[in-house]
Design goal:
Blueprint lengths: L4 H11 L17 H14 L5 E5 L5 E5 L1 H14 L2
Antiparallel strand pairs: 1-2
């Protein structure tokens, strides 16, 4: 696991090196999951699933948030299709 950007900035300042020198590259094998996920997203939209929903916060104010059902469906799809 690598540190967050704020921590990288602090380490770079301390060591007086560019941030890019502190980040290790990690190869990822292309699996096609991103494309499949896009298709699943479009399928869910075509079936009428909403991207955003309106909820009431603790003070009773209404706010728009990501649809929890959409988020869960996409996470389930990723979990089932990850190679």
């Amino acid at each position: 696991m690598q540190p967050g950007l704020k921590r990288i900035e602090e380490i770079g300042d301390l060591l007086e090196v560019d941030n890019i020198e502190l980040i290790a590259s990690k190869y990822r094998k292309p699996t096609g999951l991103a494309g499949k996920l896009q298709l699943e997203y479009k399928r869910l939209l075509s079936e009428g699933m909403q991207i955003k929903v309106v909820i009431s916060d603790a003070k009773g104010n209404q706010k728009e948030v990501n649809n929890p059902a959409m988020v869960e469906a996409l996470r389930d799809f990723v979990a089932k299709n990850r190679s």
